[in-house]
Amino acid sequence: MNSSVDSVLALVRPDILALTAYSSARKESKGGRVWLDANENPETPSAHQQLLNRYPEPQPSDLLAKLATLYGVSPTQALVTRGSDEGIDLLLRTFCRAGQDAILITPPTYGMYVVAAGIQGASVVKVPLVQAKNFALDAEAVIAAALANAAVKLVFLCTPNNPTGNLLNRADVLKVTRALAGRAVVVADEAYVDFSGQPSLASEIGANPNLVVLRTLSKAFGLAGARVGTTIADPAVIAVLQKVIAPYPIPAPVVQAALAALSADGLAAASASVALLISERVRLAAALPKLAAVKELWPSDTNYLLLEVADAAKTMAAGRAAGVIWRDRQKDVPNTIRITVGSPDENNATLEVLARV
Ligand code: PMP
After folding, report:
1. In this structure, is residue 76 part of a structural domain?
2. Which of 262, 286, 317 is a domain's end point?
3. Residue 232 maps to a domain
4. Backbone Cα Rg of the chain
5. pLDDT tens per residue, range 145-186
6. Nearest Cα to 91, choosing from 63, 67, 120, 71?
7. Is residue 277 domain-shared with residue 327, that is, in the same domain?
8. 194 lines ligand 1 (CB under 6 A)
9. Within 10 A of 167 (CB to CB), how many other CB atoms are there?
10. In three state form, how does the secondary structure of 156-211 look?
11. What's the total number of domains in the chain?
12. Which residue among 52, 213, 252, 294 is least packed, with the fewest CB closer than 10 Å?
């Protein structure tokens, strides 16, 4: 293990580092014929679902291999989680000591970082994105704030950012990562990167062991209901996260659904879906500024658009009255709402309702 990996492990909670991981029966029992090791029931209640009486593999090897290929990394650099939300939670619990450590976020950004910090008892340092520069990352300010506060263990950079929709500058993210080597882990949350046309930061992990990338099948692959995320990190970091994750986190039917989504047909369907959503985003982005209700529209690298309206409460109410639900983002940016790019019909509903506001 090289010294830069050691310097990342030095950021892990000492009690987690010292913990002996629970060794699940299924991990220890490869190649058996009669499985009497895990107190399972020999029968399954469902005639349609094979093997539901058995615990799944702790990290389903077929799925892990497919996800690693999809993301261009080695299986040892990947951990399958229940959505990328679980990755956020695992990172907090692994790196932040309650009442002592902190995370750094760049508001306006995804709300779960603060919630996960609150659950873990970590405090939150905020370095806002620069609204005047289309919500660009202020890399120097992030570096300065993190270096000034030794409690900061995790820096969450959401790229593309939710709710503003913009991809952060790759060179800036890497600059922050390098400047904080040995001081903090930089988490690049790439939940929406599939809609950006830009490459993932995952290829940079080899050279930067303090970089972690979060991906998900919830958006581009349409599997939000299945809850499949991937945390991508240095193998030594993955090994520590494996101590913290639940013993059998990914249910067998979810593994089957995800494997189908990652088959050749599934991959083709996902790229067609992403292409349609991008073309619908372009159509909405052209039509929305022509409506009187829309005051400003920010460019988006995602499957949603952030817009400023004359009156966000009134706009949301008009949507609700028509059965169309958007997301009020006033607490992030004054008078804004966030609209997901849906099917062509759903997007027509957005345009029709907004035209009447
Ligand atoms: N990161 C960001 C930026 C998100 O917007 C979301 C979904 N709202 C997630 C992570 C979590 O997604 P999931 O748990 O479905 O993978």
Report:
1. yes
2. 262
3. yes
4. 22
5. 999 999 999 999 999 999 999 999 999 999 999 999 999 999
6. 120
7. yes
8. no
9. 20
10. EEECCCCCCCCCCCHHHHHHHHHHCCCCCEEEEECCCHHHCCCCCHHHHCCCCCCE
11. 2
12. 52
Residue 44 CA, ligand 1 centroid: distance in Å: 33
Q: Where residue 309 sits, what CATH number does that domain have?
A: 3.90.1150.10
Same structural domain, 202 and 254: yes
Gap from CA of 195 to ligand 1 centroid (Å): 14
Q: Are 215 and 252 contained in the same domain?
A: yes
Kindly state whether residue 46 falls inside one of the protein's structural domains: no
Residues 300-304, mean pLDDT to the nearest whole number:
98
pLDDT at residue 6, as a whole number: 93
pLDDT digits (tens, 9 = 90+) for 185-225: 999 999 999 999 999 999 999 999 999 999 999 999 999 99
Q: Sorting pLDDT into bands at 50, 70 and 90, what band is 1?
A: low
Q: What CATH number should be reported for the domain holding residue 231? A: 3.40.640.10
Backbone angles phi, psi at 24, to 5 degrees: -75, 150
Query: Which tens digit of pLDDT belongs to each residue from 322-343?
Result: 999 999 999 999 999 999 999 9
Domain limit, last residue, from 262, 280, 309: 262
Other C-beta atoms closer than 10 Å to the C-beta of 320 total 12
| Same domain, residue pair 127 and 243 | yes
Residues counted in the chain: 357
Cis preceding linkage at 107, omega within 30? no
Q: Is the CB of 230 under 6 A from ligand 1?
A: no
Whether the model pTM is above 0.85: yes
Domain that holds residue 344: 265-356
Which tens digits make up the pLDDT trace of 76-115?
Answer: 999 999 999 999 999 999 999 999 999 999 999 999 999 9
pLDDT of residue 318: 97
In a domain? residue 222: yes
What is d(CA 126, CA 213) in angstroms, rounded to the nearest whole number?
Answer: 20
